[in-house]
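Case 309 in the screening queue. Each case pairs one protein sequence with one candidate compound; here the compound is magnesium ion. For every case the pipeline is the same: read the inputs, emit a complex structure as tokens, and attach any notable structural observations.

Predict complex for case 309.
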Amino acid sequence: MSCIYPIGGGKGGIGKSFIAANLGVLLAKQGNQVVLVDLDLGGANLHTFTGMTNVKTGMEAFLDKSVKNLKEVVVPTNIHNLSIISSVNCSMEIANLSAAQKNKVINALVKLPYEYVLLDLGAGTNYNTLDFFLSSYEGIIALTPEPTSVENAFKFIKALYFRKVKQVLGQNDFKLYSQQVEMNSNALEVTSQVIDTVLEKDPEKGEILLQELQKFKFKFIINQFRKTVGTKLGEKIEKVCNKHFYSEFQFLGNVCYDERVHDSIFSKNIFVNKYSYSVSAIDLSHIVIKLQGNRESSSPHTLGRYERL
Ligand SMILES: Nc1ncnc2c1ncn2[C@@H]1O[C@H](COP(=O)(O)OP(=O)(O)OP(=O)(O)O)[C@@H](O)[C@H]1O
Ligand SMILES: [Mg+2]
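Case 309 output:
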């Protein structure tokens, strides 16, 4: 069964594509069949992180129905065991997917014959991005230690939760319950208040909602970490999230800031290959060990299971 990891986060430029590409390479180097999928349809650049310049086919051919099967647009990279579905040739029109197209992509992703499928998502909290993220129980949230990024990560988690609660309850029920709590507050507690209200007013529905939320095992990575920042930031965020939300949150680790990331992109070399002994590359390899540890101890139920939205 494939393991699907969407990589998202509210903010732009935090390193989602960098993390996706480099984790992909490390997993591939261990002998796993890995495919990277660029789902940042309006700002695709995952191909550049893997050193590719001329990508002939990709997501656009699947979306405009030139090919039937998503498998047909998978392109090998020059790294053994690592392939990519690029979105570099997607037009602006294609980038704004309809709900039907989004579901088509999600349903096709689960059928890809790879051990690991890594989804590189765009910034922001638009519905397509949230739905791509929520279509696996094992999403990875990227952030940097800056307060603005931490704030956006919380906003992203809140948006994910509201989207999921809305999906499970249906539009009308959601409105009813959400009106009963302080919707104008930005506090994290609001999210759990909606769920608590459902549990109280309609225990049967509340139970279904709770069970659905408890299937999620969100993970997060602090990228561009600098020694000057409190080293316990990740643990603190993990604690806050586990307290306020009904899903499990796991801090996977910090990835140090390294000037050479910039150089590796310019020279079209993948960072973990060119600077394999750097602190940041070692940080990333520790994250891979954690992910693989999770995989061994997880039930098949939670491993990248996709469902129709
Ligand atoms: N650990 C790091 N150390 C130093 N620089 C980094 C690191 N991670 C990412 N960067 C820099 O940050 C830039 C943004 O990274 P990246 O493109 O992966 O972010 P993103 O979240 O995918 O952005 P977008 O939202 O635009 O897709 C990169 O060009 C790279 O130079
Ligand atoms: Mg990106």
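Case 309 observations:
- The mean pLDDT is 88.
- Residues 147-169 form the longest helix (23 residues).
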